[in-house]
């Protein structure tokens, strides 16, 4: 009977002792708060305040050891907890402040880079503008050169036509410019081989044709007088036109620009009853058609 | 029993005599509370809580002082000071956070310009 009582008593007494030694919740909280702060950014960003919190906790621990769980111990522990929390807040403020400073720095460097890029773009734009001005000037110069070239080409064409006018009749008709060469100058009677003297004239004609607008086309027409059979005249006129065309092609006139046609005696320009008239009718005409497709 | 009681009374009396009225600590806690208020603690929820605790503790300290509990009043005033300072820091943290966000947005805006 005695033994259980002793046991109970010892349990009670040990409990009492445990109670006497159990720290107040404020101290437990203060220890936890300090541990948390010490393990966080406060160690780096608010070491002085963390140190103050530690000293405050040490005072609380000492007071608990000396005076036990009293009002003053609780107050001191409460204060230590607040100081630990305070150090954490200060650490966060320090980090935010650092972040603000870094952002400002980043912003400044970005602005600087943007400004540099704007400057660069401006320089590029200026260069492009200068370039386009040069191009415009070049274009104007080219236009002027082209205008001169044309002027000269026209002058040359006029000169060639004038030269041609001395050896052939030139008329402006509805169908185009018509160059008429006398048959007697080009061919022997009833033949369609070109006479040697004809070649010099045809050289001049070729030259004149080449001076013309490159888009214009040419038709070589052969004509005879009304003497002899119409069918023979037709063939002769065709062969003559072809001979002239081939000669002109061999002297630089593009083959696809020039065609040959025979009209026989069907298109007289003069009276076939007189020798003079017949001579006029024996002819080769070269018609220049501007810009015919 | 009587001796103990007497001893207690004497102790208390000497303690009272030894510990001077914590007028300065109370004044400091009032100043800290004002500081927290000026920092805008009442407008920041977490800070407002600490500010409220500080005010209540200041009231308790005043009451303790009235009762002649000088040392407890001093200790309670210190609690008020620490809560007020925590409230102050929490308010400043909130401002710094807002400022950091603004700065970040500005950086993003400038970075956006350079795209």
UniProtKB/TrEMBL annotation, chain A:
It is found in: Cell outer membrane. InterPro entries: Bact_OuterMem_StrucFunc (IPR050330), DUF4398 (IPR025511), OMP_bac (IPR006664), OmpA-like (IPR006665), OMPA-like_CS (IPR006690), OmpA-like_sf (IPR036737). The keyword Membrane applies. Keywords: Cell outer membrane, Membrane. The keyword Membrane applies. CDD domains: OmpA_C-like. Residues 174-292 form the OmpA-like domain. SUPFAM superfamilies: OmpA-like. Residues 126-151, 260-282 are annotated as: Disordered. This is OmpA family protein.
């Amino acid at each position: 009977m005695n033994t259980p009582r002793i046991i109970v008593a010892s349990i009670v007494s040990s409990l009492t002792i445990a109670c006497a030694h159990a720290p107040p919740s404020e101290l437990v909280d203060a220890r936890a708060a300090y541990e948390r702060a010490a393990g966080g950014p406060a160690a780096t960003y608010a070491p002085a305040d963390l140190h103050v919190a530690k000293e405050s906790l040490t005072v609380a621990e000492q007071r608990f050891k000396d005076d036990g769980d009293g009002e003053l111990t609780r107050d001191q522990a409460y204060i230590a907890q607040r100081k630990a929390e305070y150090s954490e807040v200060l650490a966060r403020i320090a980090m935010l402040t650092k972040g603000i400073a870094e952002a400002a720095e980043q912003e400044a460097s970005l602005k600087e880079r943007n400004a540099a890029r704007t400057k660069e773009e401006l320089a590029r734009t200026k260069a492009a503008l200068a370039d386009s001005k040069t191009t415009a000037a070049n274009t104007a110069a080219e236009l002027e050169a082209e205008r001169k070239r044309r002027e000269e080409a026209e002058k040359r064409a006029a000169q060639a036509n004038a030269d041609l006018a001395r050896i052939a009749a030139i008329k402006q008709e509805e169908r185009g410019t018509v160059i008429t060469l006398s048959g007697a100058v080009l061919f022997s009677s009833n033949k369609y081989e070109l006479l040697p003297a004809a070649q010099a004239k045809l050289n001049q004609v070729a030259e004149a044709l080449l001076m013309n607008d490159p888009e214009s086309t040419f038709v070589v027409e052969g004509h005879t007088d009304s003497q002899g059979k119409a069918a023979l005249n037709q063939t002769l006129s065709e062969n003559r036109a072809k001979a002239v065309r081939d000669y002109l092609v061999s002297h630089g006139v593009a083959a696809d620009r020039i065609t040959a046609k025979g009209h026989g005696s069907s298109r007289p320009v003069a009276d076939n009853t007189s020798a003079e008239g017949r001579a006029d009718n024996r002819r080769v005409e070269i018609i220049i058609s501007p810009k015919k497709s | 029993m009587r001796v103990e009681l007497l001893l207690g009374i004497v102790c208390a009396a000497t303690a009272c005599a030894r510990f001077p009225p914590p007028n300065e600590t109370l004044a400091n806690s009032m100043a800290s509370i004002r500081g927290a208020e000026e920092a805008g603690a009442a407008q920041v929820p977490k800070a407002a809580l600490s500010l409220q605790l500080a005010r209540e503790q200041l009231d308790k300290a005043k009451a303790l002082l009235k009762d002649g509990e000088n040392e407890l009043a001093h200790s309670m005033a210190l609690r008020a000071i620490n809560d007020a300072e925590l409230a102050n820091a929490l308010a400043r943290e909130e401002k710094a956070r807002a400022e950091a966000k603004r700065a970040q947005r500005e950086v993003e805006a400038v970075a956006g310009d350079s795209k």
